[in-house]
């Protein structure tokens, strides 16, 4: 579904991604973890076409994303992205937030989009908030709206960039619950997260990054029970201490 081949990314003199290669299969759930500044978010933003790259190839399905992201519009319906900050339009109701992109980008008929949006709000368990504005919702509710909005474009792949990091602890569970449901339905997902128990439960594969490189990748049981690198062992022991 997604093929990443030898991508490099620099910010000025600093190398933030070095020689990253990764393949994600249809229906696979890949969790990317690692310390802050390891390049996780930059990698996922490159896949979404939000960051250009110095070299290397990224393909989604059969099509390649240009390194300067010049053809990103062609992928807008195929890749759904959920950010740390919810990025909802504050002046639009929840329902209108969901309907905007399918109407404007995909030019889909209003009634069909509305029906889909309402069913997605039911799926993320906030159908009673359809006419509310983002500012009237809790952080957890806003993030569930953001997930539903991404799904409204009927993407083939969902990317999550630390979707719970801006939430209060009691709201984390409700967002992870929605993501677990998605995973159980077979959605192809790449998830950057510090929620290790979630990674253990949901991931088919865990990718550990450090210093802009992939240090280790393994099925969750192997990664959590027997990490191969000293850096991963150190990271996991620090996470379990929190």
What key attributes describe this structure?
globular; 6-stranded mixed beta sheet; 36% helix; 10 strands; 242 residues; alpha/beta; 8 helices; single chain; 4-stranded antiparallel beta sheet
Description:
This protein is an alpha/beta fold. Helices cover 36% and strands 25% of the residues. Helix 2 (94-104) packs parallel to helix 4 (139-151) and helix 4 packs parallel to helix 5. The longest helix has 16 residues, at 169-184. The model has no long low-confidence stretch (mean pLDDT 94).
What's the number of extended β-strand segments? 10
In the predicted model, the low-confidence regions spanning at least 5 consecutive residues are none
The side-by-side strand order for the widest beta sheet comes to 6-7-8-3-9-10
Number of helices: 8
- Termini separation comes to 35 Å
Radius of gyration: 18 Å
* Structural class by sheet pairing and helices: alpha/beta
The pLDDT mean sits at 94
Biggest β-sheet, characterized?
6 strands, mixed
Proportion in helices: 25-40%
Shape: globular
- Residue share in β-strands: 25-35%
| SSE run | EEEHEEEHHHEHEHEEHH
Summarize this entry quickly:
With about 240 residues, this protein is an alpha/beta fold.
Write the layout of secondary structure elements.
Elements: E1 2-11, E2 14-24, E3 29-33, H1 40-47, E4 55-60, E5 63-65, E6 79-82, H2 94-104, H3 110-123, H4 139-151, E7 157-161, H5 169-184, E8 188-192, H6 196-202, E9 205-210, E10 213-218, H7 220-225, H8 230-241
Parallel strand pairs: 3-8, 3-9, 6-7, 7-8
Antiparallel strand pairs: 1-2, 1-4, 4-5, 9-10
Helix pairs in contact: 2-3, 2-4, 3-4, 4-5
């Amino acid at each position: 579904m997604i093929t990443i081949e030898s991508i490099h990314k620099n910010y000025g003199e600093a190398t933030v991604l070095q020689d990253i290669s990764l393949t994600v299969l249809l229906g696979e759930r890949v969790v990317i973890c690692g310390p802050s500044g390891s390049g996780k978010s930059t990698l996922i933003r490159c896949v979404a076409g939000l960051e250009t790259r110095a070299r290397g190839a990224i393909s989604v399905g059969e099509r390649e994303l240009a390194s300067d992201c010049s053809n990103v519009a062609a992928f807008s319906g195929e890749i759904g992205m959920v950010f740390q900050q919810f990025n909802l339009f504050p002046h639009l109701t929840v329902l209108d937030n969901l309907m905007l992109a399918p109407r404007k980008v995909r030019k889909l008929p209003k009634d069909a989009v509305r029906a889909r949006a309402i069913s997605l709000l039911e799926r993320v368990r906030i159908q009673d908030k359809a006419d509310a504005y983002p500012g009237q919702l809790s952080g957890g509710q806003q993030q569930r709206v953001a997930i539903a909005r991404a799904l409204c474009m009927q993407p083939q792949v969902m990317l999550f960039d630390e979707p719970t990091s801006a939430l209060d602890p009691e709201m984390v569970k409700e967002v992870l619950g929605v993501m677990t449901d998605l995973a159980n339905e077979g959605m192809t997902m790449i998830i950057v997260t510090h929620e290790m128990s979630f990674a253990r439960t949901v991931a088919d594969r865990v990718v550990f990054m450090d210093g802009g490189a992939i240090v280790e990748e393994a099925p969750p049981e192997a990664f959590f029970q027997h990490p191969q690198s000293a850096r991963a062992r150190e990271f996991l022991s620090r996470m379990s201490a929190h």
